[in-house]
Write a structure and sequence with these properties.
This protein is α+β, with helices and mostly antiparallel strands and about 290 residues long. The chain folds into two domains: about 110 residues, Glutaredoxin (3-Layer(aba) Sandwich); about 120 residues, Up-down Bundle (Glutathione S-transferase Yfyf (Class Pi), Chain A, domain 2), CATH 1.20.1050. Helix content is about 40%, strand content about 5%. A four-stranded mixed sheet has the order 2-1-3-4, covered by helices on one side.
């Protein structure tokens, strides 16, 4: 691996599996499956294959929010896909999502199975299917989708950019960390100004935009991402912190954010979820601290 500044790109890039840091063993420049394995199936209408990353918890939070409203048709099985072990490259997973990224969902509630992938697409699908957590009016719906797609476009700077170079890269280099820190702080400033005179992202209505943005930026300002809260001075974004804490107290969020989670305190991990009773041993005071 070259030092920063002394790398001259070759005429033709060649894949070096030893170059890439923490995830070099699973990152590759080709698509498709690496091994044959069928996915498990549970009894509920929705089958979710995921891991409790910021993208993954968007969907478990959404499903738990729907169940919190008493919508029994939103019952789901959440199967753990350990992305660090490359389980997203199984033949069964690739059949659902050719892009091999979590989360991926199957809806078996109708006459035929519907496959949905990309977290933003799944959120819209569930919101439209159950007519909840998305505004009814065209104008307000557009505003909600503006911010949902803002998150989808912005988070790669936070995760793949800042998170990679700050937390996961094999060596720390000032230039990429500075570059992505600046962008993440700009994004936090965007949110802080947006939330200066409203409770939620879309005024007073809690929507899929809040779920999507909270799963990344809420986690960041609550000190749950990359150990970077002091480095990024996240507490200075007071409106974002207030909003993040408000959502953090929602019962469905407390449940959803621990589903398929495999890191952190054991009390905050529920590797698979197949019934609401799976949360029984996780008392309210253990769910979120």
């Amino acid at each position: 691996m070259s030092e920063l500044g002394d790398y001259n790109p070759p005429n033709k890039w060649v894949w070096d599996k030893e170059n890439g840091g923490k995830f070099a063993n699973i990152n590759r420049p080709i698509s498709g499956s690496t091994h044959q394995k069928e996915l498990p199936l549970g009894k509920h209408p929705f089958q979710l294959y995921s891991q409790g990353t910021p993208n993954g918890i968007k969907i478990t939070i959404m499903l738990e929010e729907l169940l919190e409203l008493g919508i029994k048709d939103a019952e789901y099985d959440a199967w753990l896909i350990r992305i660090g072990k490359g389980e997203q490259f199984s033949s069964g997973f690739v059949e659902i999502n050719p892009n091999s990224k979590i989360p991926s969902l199957i809806d078996n509630s109708g006459n035929k199975s519907i496959k949905v992938f990309e977290s933003g697409s799944i959120l819209i699908y569930l919101a439209d299917k159950f007519q909840n957590f998305i505004p009814k009016s065209f104008d307000d719906r557009t505003e909600c989708l503006n911010w949902l797609f803002w998150q989808m476009a912005s988070a790669p700077y936070l995760g793949g950019g800042f998170g990679h170079f700050y937390a996961y890269a094999p060596k720390k280099f000032e230039y990429p960390i500075d570059r992505f820190s600046m962008e993440v702080k700009r994004q936090l400033d965007v949110l802080d100004k947006l939330l200066s005179d409203k409770t939620y992202i879309c005024n007073e209505e809690y929507t899929i935009a809040d779920i999507a943005i909270w799963s990344w930026y809420g986690a960041l300002v609550l000190g749950r991402l990359y150990g970077a809260e002091e480095f990024l001075d996240v507490k200075s974004y007071k409106n974002v912190v207030k909003w993040a804490n408000l959502i953090n107290e929602r019962p469905a969020v407390k449940r959803g954010r621990i589903v398929n989670k495999i890191s952190g305190n054991l009390d905050e991990q529920l590797h698979e979820r197949h019934d609401s009773s799976d949360f029984n041993e996780k008392t309210e005071d253990k769910l979120v601290k």
